[in-house]
Please model this.
Amino acid sequence: MVTSDSPTQATIIWETDLPALGLVHLARVISSAPKTTPSPGPAVKVGNVEYLVDTVASFSEASQLTRHQLTISGLQPESEYIYVIQGDTPNGERVVSEPYLFKTAPRPGQGPVTFSFISDTRAGEERGERDYMGHNSSVLSRLTQDAYRRGAELMLADGDLIKGYTSDTEDFRLQLKGWKQSVAGFWRSRPIFTAMGNHEALSNVYDDGSPHGIQLDKWPYNEQSAEAVFADEFYNPVNGPQPSDPRRPTYQKNAYHFQYGPVLFICVNNNYWWTTNQAIPTYGGSPEGYIFEEQLSWFENVLTQAEANATVRYVVVFCQQVVFPCGGHMKDGMWWQGDNNVRAYSRKGQKLEPEKLGMIEVRNRFWKSMAQSTKVAAVLTGHEHSYHRTLIDQRTPVGLFPADDANKDGKLDQISANPDFVQPTWQITAGTGGAPYHAPEDSPWTPAVMSLQRGYLLFHADASRLSLKFISITGQVIDEVDDLMAVKKKVAK
Ligand SMILES: [Fe+2]
Model:
């Protein structure tokens, strides 16, 4: 992993089948070597290209392991390096990787950055490469390769990576392993940051006669919950909120933020501590789309700090559950057809109690914090398996609570605009990474663009603008925005 939070560091993570002492050989790239022999200095060949290098060094682990993680410090920001991994077993067996290239991140605020976004890569009811270990490998690998070729320096993978919904921890881990295999070509050179989707569910399941039974996040939470296993399988930043009740699952590596060049990325987990809907008031847990108070206030704090941080030019938020659905998930996401009764239940001491804020109140507070920031360029989501881009502003009918609940039953009876949504802000949904299609449906808000093609998002951020392309699996540019910040209102300094 490389980020601008520590631009002089890189962390390399790998696994071996047998316990082995890990070693990383590292060399800084000066330039491609001239086609003369012999080379004027030390050189390393990656594929067919020979590179002149300096500062060759080796870094070793202290003990024999199967899961390896080495953080290397003292690197130059925004520089290219070549690394080779070596593993030595106690029996004298040695494995050595191919040489791979990576680039360190720029200092905060520096450099243009190109990044990509993919979501809902899970498999449906198809066969062959379209369902390889629970994900659509055919689509995922093609989109990831295209992003690599077009220069994406990092990738956001916004959940529903795999089919999931399993009660077997090994099955869950194997599905994630399969997913990592499909993106390995990208990931060995450039970082991927993952979010949890509703499909990243690992549960204990009880038969109550319903089709899927009662599903409760697997326990003990500290090692068996979906959140804990996800954190064990992915190397994401560790700076998320603390659960207000330490008995609940962790936010570690499933809610986090990091800066890369001029962009601050915030990953929000709106699939935290999921329980089957009908069982929530009895056993506790959270519905799809819900965000607990502790994560909401953490998010608001991160945004406030970003507003004051001169090195942050743009903020990009990503979460799996769609905030304003347009087809496929009108009945959940963060909308639930305007039902504010939908909410999480958690224990206060021994007693199980509903959370204070309902779904519509949570959604409105979440969006308000972004619509009062001058830097949030877009909220990227998946969950709906289509591409849609929707501008939300003070005139968009979004629904207020309690003002729009005339008969006081908790459900919205009319849908008003929200005067608190001061800064127009884009919601961009692209759950088009391989899962089966969702058709458009009527929604109170109207997308500016919609497409049912499979594809991914490619962004380019520099000092003047943050631009976007939605690129289909055939390489066609389906949608393009030159400057996502152009919709923002001028704010007097
Ligand atoms: Fe989803």
